[in-house]
TrEMBL record:
<keyword id="KW-0223">Dioxygenase</keyword>
<dbReference type="InterPro" id="IPR005123">
    <property type="entry name" value="Oxoglu/Fe-dep_dioxygenase_dom"/>
</dbReference>
<dbReference type="Pfam" id="PF13532">
    <property type="entry name" value="2OG-FeII_Oxy_2"/>
</dbReference>
<protein>
    <submittedName>
        <fullName>Alpha-ketoglutarate-dependent dioxygenase AlkB</fullName>
    </submittedName>
</protein>
<keyword id="KW-0408">Iron</keyword>
<keyword id="KW-0560">Oxidoreductase</keyword>
<dbReference type="InterPro" id="IPR027450">
    <property type="entry name" value="AlkB-like"/>
</dbReference>
<feature type="domain" description="Fe2OG dioxygenase">
    <location>
        <begin position="79"/>
        <end position="182"/>
    </location>
</feature>
<dbReference type="GO" id="GO:0051213">
    <property type="term" value="F:dioxygenase activity"/>
</dbReference>
<dbReference type="InterPro" id="IPR004574">
    <property type="entry name" value="Alkb"/>
</dbReference>
<keyword id="KW-0479">Metal-binding</keyword>
<dbReference type="InterPro" id="IPR037151">
    <property type="entry name" value="AlkB-like_sf"/>
</dbReference>
Amino acid sequence: MAAFHQWAAGPVPIRSATVRGHPMSVRTVCLGWHWQPYRYSRHAGDVNGARVLPLPEWLIELGRRALASVGWPDAAAYRPDTALINFYDAGAKMGLHQDKDEVSPDPVVSLSVGEACVFRFGNTENRNRPHTDVELRSGDLFVFGGPARLAYHGVTTIIPGTAPDDCGLTDGRINITLRATGLRD
């Protein structure tokens, strides 16, 4: 949580991205690459033009350990180059979407901290069924890659009052997603 508070303070502060003319209810801070809807850049042109902070080596290592724990082949070679850190307050949601702004097929590693949420994991074809709702709690890791890398997914509900006393958040949820963009400067 200490690292999150540092990242959220800047040089590129946490913000709500605008998608199709509407601000998202989720607030995001980025490391490595700055995500704007449908593209990445090293500088936050939609915020203040500053260069985003680098992705720390300890987060890269966390991603490798997560992949190794689920038996991912060649987990030691995983080299994410960006992290999107999303903050959800009690009313925040994220609609079903595909993570297809990256050119790399490497898996997405997601870590939850704080209040639980209902995470909807769908199919790769459309936003319709079939999908599975999974309750993600503080400390849970969720990895999706291979054929599921482009599955539609989102957060339908934050479950208030579920943050563990020792997680550093009294309310809300932080989600850290590690990705390998495959992009070059």
